[in-house]
């Protein structure tokens, strides 16, 4: 009688790629609720559209590449990319913006580089940057929070604007306006000082109105991901920390032309970037030390691009730039292997063994 | 009572599956009708048979002799008759049959006379080691390294600490737990012998803190400075390097052995066997085996004669051997599957895990998403995902850059991988490939050396031939007669004509011309 020959280990933790992706989606729920609350139903329409296009594109690409379709289409990675991209898009942008962005993210940034696990660039950010540089007008026409405009784009108005254009919608001008980061950038360019600009009604307590609550929601979701051990603390802490320190330093030196650190952390993409974008494991650095460097690089570049670059927010560009650095970072941050290096010495410096609870 | 000197990085909390077998005392399994003794039950060179087919043997009688230094002798575990010396299925990951001595038991279980018991404290150290060697003792925790070698640190080996490994961190195995509970005194006695043999001052028995009864029994039996220390229950705390780190705070250097950290580690069962060998003169002919898993109705620990076929052990435990689908030797994390139930229990068989199937067997393998979960649990501080990447594209230089050979194959990375990648298998594969390439390279080197030698010999012959030729030519060129022609070809022709002429004349004269030879 032939025996089966199972290969050890025979026991396995309850982790799966799908489980990881589903947890990321759960962690986005608070932010999604806050977003819909402040900016209307547009994002939901875009998300439905984005997820459908992403999953369809995923399936077609898998078929074309001769890979098994079912386990990959159901792994949850395409919806995560689609939803993260939607958070970066103006919620009332025309429908084709989402379609183009998602197709570029899934087809080019993901599958042309070898699919799940092989893409050097974060697909959502690649899609966003393509849209930003290709279609600047629709990509910078943002609605303001309803607490500022007094107009709340409901499902029908949102759908009409997204699919038919803003022409027939009387309140379009009230709905749209400058985002806090954009306003800060343009007004600083007009030689206004930060306190003057901050008096504008789009600014809230420490960030933009609505935006600061969105940032809080991403922060909450991020803490939950940390608690669930989907991500480690290294990248968020390094990224937010370096952004904070950079902005604190410049704001202390010249408070008139540099907004406060809280503005940097709570107005734009810093929170979603720190917890959901930069922590994308595929395109991030791998070792704990490498992740600190990678995260710090994103924080610094975000500040640099916001302050001296051509775009109001720099998170997406910073992530993509640091994606390029990942192989180099990984190469130079190999941890000291057990039994290598100083013998009988003090405890190794690496913060290891803190996470004994996995499995 | 739990004192911690150090901790090791990484590791996992695994759900134990120990309760079914840990509560039952060790039972002795009857001698089976047929026993199979592989000549190779240890790391090193196989032993050589010293019995012939048809010969009668007694329990404890030497049947295979250890010729090489890194080797261990084999003893019959019951009395009977040698019926075959041939290749049989053995418990080895390769599944390849290997040379075995097959003994048909006579049912009388007559014992060979034991060596006189000795007092280890007055025994010459090399005689002490020799007795341990003659008893055929190898590491019983699963690795099977001949024990006496570890007790011979040699010049420069400065061992100050003996560690007995009572950690048993694999989730199913309980044989050492029971042994510690029931034969703590033997283990402590063995520990004293080991400490004496290596001249160490300190002796610590490390026991996981999920085995309070074992720790208590050992503490009760501890004497003469042997201490018992509980260690954290975290897999793989029983790994040699990890245990040394926990108990002494020292790291075994990557390219070194425990003795380079001043430590010698022995499994508790090995210590008990050493006690029996030295103080009673008993060779290693039986061991405690945990028989467990979903395929066994009543998991238990059995004292089994070495050489007992796995099928007999399972039958004794009430398993329907015809229905058994899989048997893994060793634990769920690091064990390997046997290919044939006729494979015997050997010195390293600590556990038979019956019909355990991987609990993620139906999960498809997904691509690595570089999540780094494996990095966090690796007790050796490796980067398994990078190793996997390079192993899967067969870049064997790079995997060695990433310290592949520091991997202890504990399987922690496998356990946490969300993509269900069999990482440990990839690393085993890469190691085997590299070893195979190394062997191939050595073979090629030898072949090249042979070829070069051959070539050099041919060149030498050619040189010598040409030298002869040149000398001969020189002799001919310098003839005693007049007017050597400038043209050597012409001269050669004339020479040939002259020879023909001479031969002709010689023939006519009835004699063979010989003077122009050579």
What does this structure look like?
The complex is a heterodimer of chains A (359) and B (518). Chain A is an all-alpha fold and 359 residues long. Chain A is 61% helix and 1% strand. Chain A is built from 18 helices and two strands. Chain A has a two-stranded antiparallel ribbon with strand order 1-2. Chain B is an alpha/beta fold. In chain B, helix 4 packs parallel to helix 6 (212-221) and helix 5 (184-198) crosses helix 6. Helices cover 35% and strands 15% of the residues of chain B. Chain B has helices at 19-22, 125-134, 147-150, 175-182, 184-198, 212-221, 240-248, 268-279, 310-316, 373-377, 384-392, 396-401, 412-416, 423-477, 488-509; strands spanning 27-28, 34-38, 48-49, 56-57, 62-65, 74-75, 80-88, 98-105, 161-166, 202-208, 226-231, 263-267, 286-292, 300-305, 327-329, 336-337, 351-354. In chain B, the strands form four sheets. Chain B has a six-stranded mixed β-sheet, sandwiched between helices.
Helix content estimate of chain A = 55-70%
Calculate the mean pLDDT score of chain A and round it: 89
Instruction: Name the assembly state.
Output: heterodimer
Overall structural class of chain B, as computed from helix and strand content, comes to: alpha/beta
Strand portion of chain A: under 5%
Global morphology of chain B: globular
Percent of residues in helices of chain B? 25-40%
How many β strands of chain B by DSSP?
17
User: Largest beta sheet of chain B, briefly?
Assistant: 6 strands, mixed
Mean pLDDT of chain B: 88
Query: What's the end-to-end separation of chain B, in Å?
Result: 96 Å
Greatest interface: A-B, 55 and 82 residues
Could you state the order of secondary-structure elements of chain A as H and E? Answer: HHHHHHHEHHHEHHHHHHHH
Please work out how many helical segments of chain A DSSP would assign.
18
Total DSSP E strands of chain A: 2
């Amino acid at each position: 009688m032939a025996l089966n020959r199972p290969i050890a280990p025979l026991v396995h933790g309850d982790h799966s790629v799908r489980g990881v992706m589903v947890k990321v989606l759960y962690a986005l729920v608070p932010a999604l609720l806050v977003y819909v609350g402040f900016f209307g139903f547009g994002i939901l329409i875009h998300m439905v559209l984005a997820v459908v296009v992403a999953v369809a594109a995923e399936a077609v690409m898998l078929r074309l590449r001769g890979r098994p379709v079912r386990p990959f289409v159901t792994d949850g990675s395409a919806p995560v990319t689609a939803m993260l991209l939607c958070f970066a898009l103006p919620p009332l942008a025309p429908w084709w913006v989402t379609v183009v962005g998602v197709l570029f993210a899934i087809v080019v940034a993901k599958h042309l580089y070898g699919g799940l696990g092989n893409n050097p660039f974060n697909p959502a950010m690649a899609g966003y940057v393509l849209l930003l540089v290709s279609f600047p007008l629709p990509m910078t026409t943002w609605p303001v929070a309803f607490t500022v405009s007094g107009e709340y784009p409901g499902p029908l108005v949102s759908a009409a604007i997204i699919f038919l254009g803003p022409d027939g919608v009387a309140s379009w001008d009230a709905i749209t306006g400058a985002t806090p980061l954009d306003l800060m950038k343009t007004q600083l360019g007009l030689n206004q000082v930060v306190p003057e600009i901050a008096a504008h009604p789009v600014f809230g307590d420490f960030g933009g109105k609505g935006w600061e609550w969105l940032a809080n929601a991403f922060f909450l979701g991020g803490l939950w991901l940390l608690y669930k051990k989907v991500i480690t603390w290294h990248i968020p802490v390094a990224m937010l920390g370096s952004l904070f320190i950079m902005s604190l330093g410049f704001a202390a030196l010249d408070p008139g032309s540099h907004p406060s650190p809280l503005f940097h952390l709570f107005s734009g993409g810093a929170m979603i970037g720190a917890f959901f974008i930069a922590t994308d494991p595929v395109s991030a650095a791998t070792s704990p030390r490498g992740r600190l460097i990678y995260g710090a690089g994103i924080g610094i570049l975000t500040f640099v691009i916001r302050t001296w670059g051509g775009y109001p927010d720099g998170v997406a560009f910073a992530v993509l730039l640091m994606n390029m650095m990942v192989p180099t970072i990984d190469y130079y941050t190999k941890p000291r292997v057990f039994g290598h290096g100083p013998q009988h010495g003090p405890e190794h410096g690496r913060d290891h063994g803190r996470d004994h609870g996995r499995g | 009572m739990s004192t911690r000197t150090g901790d090791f990085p990484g590791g996992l909390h695994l759900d134990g599956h120990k309760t079914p077998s840990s509560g039952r005392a060790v039972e002795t399994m009857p001698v089976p009708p047929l026993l199979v003794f592989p000549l190779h039950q240890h790391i090193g060179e196989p032993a050589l048979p010293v019995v012939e087919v048809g010969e009668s043997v007694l329990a404890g009688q030497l049947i295979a002799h250890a010729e090489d230094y890194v080797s261990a002798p084999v003893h019959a575990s019951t009395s009977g008759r040698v019926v075959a010396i041939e290749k049989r299925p053995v418990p080895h990951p390769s599944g390849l049959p290997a040379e075995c001595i097959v003994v048909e038991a006579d049912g009388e279980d007559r014992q060979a006379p034991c060596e006189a018991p000795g007092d280890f404290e007055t025994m010459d150290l090399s005689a002490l080691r020799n007795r341990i060697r003659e008893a055929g003792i190898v590491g019983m925790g699963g690795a099977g390294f001949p024990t006496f070698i570890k007790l011979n640190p040699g010049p420069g080996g400065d061992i100050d600490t003996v560690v007995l490994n009572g950690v048993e961190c694999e989730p199913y195995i309980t044989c050492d737990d029971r042994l510690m509970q029931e034969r703590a005194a033997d283990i402590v006695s063995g520990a004293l012998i080991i400490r004496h043999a290596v001249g160490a001052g300190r002796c610590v028995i490390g026991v996981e803190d999920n085995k309070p009864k074992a720790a208590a029994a050992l503490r009760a039996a501890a004497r003469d400075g042997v201490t018992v220390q509980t260690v954290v229950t975290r897999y793989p705390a029983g790994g040699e390097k990890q245990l040394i780190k926990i108990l002494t705070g020292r790291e075994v250097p990557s390219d070194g052995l425990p003795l380079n950290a001043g430590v010698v580690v022995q499994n508790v069962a090995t210590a008990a066997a050493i006690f029996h060998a030295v103080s009673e003169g008993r060779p290693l002919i039986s061991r405690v085996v945990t028989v467990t898993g979903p395929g066994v109705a009543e998991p238990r620990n059995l004292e089994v004669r070495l050489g007992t076929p796995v099928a007999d052990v399972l039958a004794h435990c009430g398993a329907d051997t015809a229905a058994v689908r899989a048997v893994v030797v060793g634990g769920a994390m690091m064990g390997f599957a046997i290919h044939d139930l006729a494979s015997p229990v050997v010195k390293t068989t600590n556990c038979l895990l019956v019909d355990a199937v991987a609990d993620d067997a139906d999960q498809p393998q997904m691509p690595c998403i570089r999540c780094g979960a494996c990095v966090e649990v690796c007790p050796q501080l490796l980067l398994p995902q990078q190793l996997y990447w390079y192993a899967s594209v067969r870049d064997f230089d790079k995997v060695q850059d990433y310290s592949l050979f520091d991997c202890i194959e504990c399987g922690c990375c496998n356990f946490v991988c969300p993509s269900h990648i069999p990482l440990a298998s990839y690393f085993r594969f890469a190691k085997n490939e590299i070893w195979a390439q190394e062997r191939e390279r050595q073979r090629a080197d030898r072949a090249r050396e042979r070829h070069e030698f051959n070539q050099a010999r041919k060149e030498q012959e050619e040189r010598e031939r040409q030298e002869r030729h040149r000398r001969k030519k020189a002799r001919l060129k310098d003839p005693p007669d007049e007017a050597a022609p400038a043209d050597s070809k012409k001269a050669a022709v004339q020479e040939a004509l002259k020879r023909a002429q001479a031969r002709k004349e010689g023939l006519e004269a009835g004699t063979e011309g010989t003077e122009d030879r050579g």
